[in-house]
Amino acid sequence: MSSRTEATAGGRYIRCPGDHVEGVRSILRQLLVSGSVKAVFSLRSIPGNESFSYSLISDPRLVEEAVPFHPLMPVQAARALSQLTVSRPLEEKVAVIIRPCELRAFIENVKQSQGSVENMFFISCTCPGVGDSGKASGNDSGKSGGGSGYRTACSVCTDFVPGDPADMVLLLEADESPEDTRILLRSEAAASMAEDLTGFEIVQGPSLEQLTRAVARRRSLQRQDFIEKGPSAGSGLEELVSLFAKCIGCRACRQACPLCTCLLCDYETARTIYPPSLIGHEAERRGALRVPPGTLQFHLGRLNHIAPYCTGCGQCSDACPVGIPVADLFIRAGSLVQPALEYHPGRNMEDPTPLSTYRADELEEITD
Amino acid sequence: MRGLVTSPGLPLREALLELAYSALREGYADFVMVPSRGPGDSYSWILAGTPDALTSAEPLPPVMTVQGARALSSAAGEPSSRRILAIMRPCEARAAVEVMKLRQIDHANLTLVTMDCPGVIQLDLYDGAAEPEECDPANLRPACRQCSEFTACGDACIVRSADSNLLLPLTAKGGELASSLGLEEQGSLDEWSKRTEELRALRLGTAEGARTELRQQVAGIGRLSDFFADCIGCRACRTVCPICYCRQCFIDMKDRRSPASSHLDRSRRSGAARLVSDTLLFHIGRMAHMSISCVGCGMCEDACPAGIPVGRLVSMVGAGTSALFDYRAGKDPEEPLPLNTFVEEELHEFED
Ligand code: SF4
Ligand code: SF4
Ligand code: SF4
Ligand code: SF4
Ligand code: SF4
Ligand code: SF4
Question: What is the pTM of this model?
Answer without folding.
Answer: 0.90
